[in-house]
Specification:
alpha+beta; two-stranded antiparallel ribbon; 5 helices
Length: 219
């Protein structure tokens, strides 16, 4: 249910509770408020090509863009380069979903330490029922401020420790250690992993490096 447990009486009310998102991102079958986890799995495995999250019993298509995808892959690569050699855990992408306390979300990038998985082994569940340690959401044009604020609250409530909100337009990262504790890190600055990934550091500008590249000129 929504954070204030209010019951939406109209689709417009429900869209507001979901973060003021566009109606085009809401699947109407199953009916709004009645979708189940099984429905989510079915639509994400279908040939429709729509990648959805489950929020308040509603299937909501993830807002995505090519730019955000490129940046997310770069962040995954940078994190993987630090995490893998030390066998710290797993780095997953936008189609790696987590069953959180009240929703099922697919963060654009996530790091999950081994000790969060039962038995410290690779999960057998299609969508693990654990919360990652670090989540990075790369903002797409279809995302709203209210939607991302709701996501942050859900992530922290579920047990996420650190959240990066990545802004391609301003080439910066809003680093959240709590719903209200935020620091903006610009592209000329370094971002670290805090208590989640001690020793990790990367230039924020490196997250966006591919956006400036083009085909080499032919001499």
């Amino acid at each position: 249910m929504s954070p204030n447990n209010a019951v939406a009486s109209t689709l417009e009310d429900h869209l507001v509770e979901l973060g003021g998102i566009a109606a085009s991102r809401v699947l109407m079958i199953p009916a709004v408020g009645t979708a189940t986890f099984a429905d989510l799995v079915a639509v994400n495995e279908s040939a429709e090509g729509r990648l959805c999250e489950l929020v308040d019993g509603t299937l909501v298509e993830k807002a995505m863009s090519y730019e955000a995808s490129v940046v997310a892959v770069t962040i995954s690569f940078i994190l993987k380069g630090f995490v893998a050699p030390q066998r710290l855990g797993l780095v997953s992408g936008a189609d790696g979903f987590f069953r959180l306390s009240s929703t099922t979300r697919g963060p654009d990038v996530a790091f999950t330490a081994w000790d969060r998985f039962p038995g410290g082994v690779f999960p057998k569940q299609l969508y693990p029922g654990v919360a990652p340690n670090l989540v990075a959401e790369v903002l797409s044009p279809g995302n709203t401020k209210a939607e991302m604020a709701r996501k942050r609250m859900e992530y922290f409530h579920a047990g996420v420790t650190l959240i990066w909100m990545v802004d391609c337009t301003h080439r910066s990262v809003a680093v959240y250690a709590s719903p209200t504790d935020v620091v903006i890190v610009g592209e000329a600055e370094a971002i670290n992993g805090g208590a989640v990934l001690p020793g990790f550091s990367a230039q924020v500008g490196d997250f966006f490096a591919d956006l400036d590249f083009g085909q080499p000129a032919v001499e």
